[in-house]
Amino acid sequence: MNKNKIETRKAIKREEVENWLKRNEKMINKHAFDRKIAAPVGTIQKYVRYDKTINQKRIDLLHRAIKSFGKMK
Q1: What is the DSSP secondary structure assignment for residue 28, as one 8-state letter?
Q2: What's the pLDDT tens digit per position in 3-20?
Q3: What is the three-class DSSP state of 43?
Q4: CB atoms within 10 A of CB 44
Q5: Helix axes 56-69, 3-23, angle to 10 degrees
Q6: Distance CA 17, CA 65 (A)
Q7: Where are the beta strands (DSSP E) in 3-62?
Q8: Quick check: helix, strand or coil at residue 50?
Q9: Organism's domain of life (predicted)?
């Protein structure tokens, strides 16, 4: 696969996850997501509250977890 296509897919995936987290921050258990993706405690909260970036590996895991809910487009 072309490197540009891979980077574009990663950017789209990141945007979907970040938008979903921002839209649903009041309804989700952030610590449960941290546990689900085996991330350090507070990773999701730091993104939502302080706009700290989430690394791509965790974005991929979050994307998979969110899609399993069937709520992402």
Answers
A1: S
A2: 888 889 999 999 999 999
A3: helix
A4: 24
A5: 60
A6: 10
A7: none
A8: helix
A9: Bacteria
Q: What are the b/e assignments for 45-58, b being 16+ CB within 10 Å?
A: eebbeeeeebeeeb
Distance CA 63, CA 57 (A): 10
38: phi then psi, degrees, rounded to nearest 5: 55, 45
* Rounded-to-integer distance, Cα 21 and Cα 62, Å: 10
CA dihedral 46, 42, 31, 68 (to 10 degrees): 60
* C-alpha dihedral, 65 to 41 to 44 to 6, nearest 10°: -60
